Amino acid sequence: MSTKLDELKSLRIDDSHRTGASEPKWSRRWILTGISILVLLGIVATVYRLTASSAPEVEVTRAVAESSAVPGVILNASGYIVAHHKINVNSKVTGRVAWVGVEKGDKVKEGQVVVRLEDQEFRAQAEQARGNLEYAKARLAEMEAGSRPEEIARAQHDYDQAKAMLIDDKANLDRIRPLVAEGVLSRQALDDAIARYEASVQRVNSLQRTYDLAKLGPRVEQINQARAQVIQAQGQLAYAQSQLDATQIRAPVSGTILERTAEKGELITAQFASTAEGGPQGSVVALADLNDLQVELDIAQQDFAKLSPKQKGTVTTDAFPDRKYNGVIAEISPEANRQKATVQVKVQILNPDGYLRPDMNANVQFLSEEKPGEVMSGSVVPSSALRDRSGRKIVFVAYNGRAVVREVKILGQRSDGYLVEGLTGGELLLSNAPPDLNDGDRVRIKSSK
């Protein structure tokens, strides 16, 4: 056992010669250098975290290069097709429908009879007015012709007869006067003779005036009055005839029947229509020219500045999306809609066909006003990325965590922004940068989820 212990002791390392030896200087320098580097890296990391947390978080979008000879789309809008002029055909007179000659969808020409009303009463009134006119004309002709020779001869005969009777009454008075003075006849006989003589004098004077008037003929005032009566009768006949003609309701323009609202036997009124069943109707048909169609749009006020009068566009419909029609702005409402914050715009369809119908859904792509064939090269940037500074158009490009200013020039509008010059395409643009952001400021790009 003691032998084994001695062997183990002989195996121990003798380090008595290292006691009190000093460590090398180079190892201590490396240790201190490492510690300094670690401290410095910690400080840099802390400063980076502090500065990075103060940088604004921004969204970015990529500029898209474009080179095209076709004008771009600056705005898409949806609306409805409407007839430029829709006409509700009414009756000028009140009457009952006797005949309806059209159906919905029929094409009619201007002046074509579409509905007839019962006209017996109006025809009788016209005949009565025509008779009154003929009577007035005959009376005027009589006055303008003056007295006939027979009338003058008769007036002269009556006048001569009255003068003869006057002579006889004068002679009778002269015979009775002395007899009464002598007492042969009574005073009453003299009074009777005087009365007969005075009556004869009055009759002679009256018939003389009648004879003179017969020779002169009617007065100018009487003739003018007769002429006025003729004109009045003509007006009454024209009015009665117009009422009779109005029983035949005609199409005011050429077009297509959109609605038929009257049936045979219904009462049509020219005054107050009724909504009650069986009550008088106000209109008979509705028609429009389907070769004159428009698209009615409500444009949001923030997009209204993109449009101008006579702006061109392409019209498509949901029913026939493969068919395209040329359009141009024909009407812009002079006032906006306060509740909807929109402005009404109407686009005239320049090449309509039989596929289009009023009240169809329609889409309009408004085109930029660039000249056809002109090649426009540049980059498309969204409106949110474009800014105005001191009269210059700029964008912020994200580069190595910083915002870099790039000046650009607007070449045209697009549906999703503007075509600009000054970018090559592919740049990351800040789309919601803070208003106080400056060139070189640090930014943090918002991560997409």
Task: Write a brief caption for the model.
This protein is of the alpha+beta class. The chain has helices at 2-11, 25-54, 120-145, 149-182, 187-216, 220-245, 301-304; strands at residues 57-58, 60-62, 64-68, 73-83, 86-90, 95-100, 107-108, 113-117, 248-250, 255-260, 267-268, 283-288, 293-300, 312-317, 325-337, 342-349, 361-367, 376-381, 387-389, 392-399, 402-414, 417-421, 428-430, 444-445. Strand 21 and strand 22 form a beta hairpin.
Describe this structure in words.
- The protein folds into 4 domains: 57-71 and 374-445, Beta Barrel (conserved putative lor/sdh protein from methanococcus maripaludis s2 fold); 73-84 and 290-367, Elongation Factor Tu (Ef-tu), domain 3; 92-115 and 250-285, Beta Barrel (OB fold (Dihydrolipoamide Acetyltransferase, E2P)); 126-240, Helix hairpin bin (Helix Hairpins, Orthogonal Bundle).
- The protein is rod-shaped and about 200 Å long.
- The chain has 7 helices and 24 strands.
- The strands form 6 sheets. The chain has a 6-stranded antiparallel sheet with strand order 3-18-22-21-20-19, with no helix packed on it. It has a 6-stranded antiparallel barrel with strand order 4-13-16-15-14-17. Strands 5-12-10-7 form a 4-stranded antiparallel sheet, with no helix packed on it.
- The model is unreliable at 16-22 (pLDDT under 50).
- The chain has 449 residues and is of the alpha+beta class.
